[in-house]
Amino acid sequence: MNVRAIITGSTGMVGKAALIECLDSEAVEAVLVINRRPIDIQHPKLKEVLLSDFTKIDSIKEQLRGYNACFHCMGVSAVGMSEAQYTHITYDMTKALADTLYEINPDLVFEYVSGVGTDSSEKGSLMWGRVKGRTENMLLAKGFKDAYALRPGGIIPEKGVKSSTGWYNFFYAIMRPFFPLMKKMDSIITSSQLGKAMINSALYPNQNKVLEVRDLKIQANK
């Protein structure tokens, strides 16, 4: 199967990593990015749709047809947010996207990037962990052909990938001399590995539906 992927959040580090690997991969024949602001990338197999409010994803339904994978990389920090605000962005917008894509093509592979510490029980003390856990559970039970919750830990940027958070980039610049050592750590994955893991998860089904860092590294090498 050739992958025809929808990517959200491609202006952020994880989404940009997925986009770069998709554009480089012979296994990916088409990419549609849905963003709140435009990206400055031109490529023969790339299309872009701008959407400021993801709860209105139904308004671009016709442009979502013909794709067999979705890499949902959009996300925000919970810092300074109430649980209601964070739930709206993390859960409600994701559900709107999933509902629309399921209506169009239930045979799609949906991959949601959450993170280490996500709480599948939805009962933990960390608000963001509960909300992401609820989001994971909703997606895994939706009924898609296949679905995965990806939980990367620390991410080392490669191929020009940058974080949309300024101080993260400052931190990466300081830590760059230690990248070779960090790559050997079980809790660290590179942006290239993460992007390849997304593509390979769409191509090669995995029995595990919640993919931690070690699982993602294995997927990247398939």
UniProtKB/TrEMBL annotation:
Pfam families in the cross-refs: Epimerase
Localization per record: Membrane
Cellular component, GO, one term: membrane
Name of this chain's protein: NAD-dependent epimerase/dehydratase family protein
Annotated InterPro entries: Epimerase_deHydtase (IPR001509), NAD(P)-bd_dom_sf (IPR036291)
Source domain of life: Bacteria
UniProt signal peptide: none
Primary localization class, coarse: membrane
Sequence ranges assigned to domain NAD-dependent epimerase/dehydratase in this UniProt record: 6-109
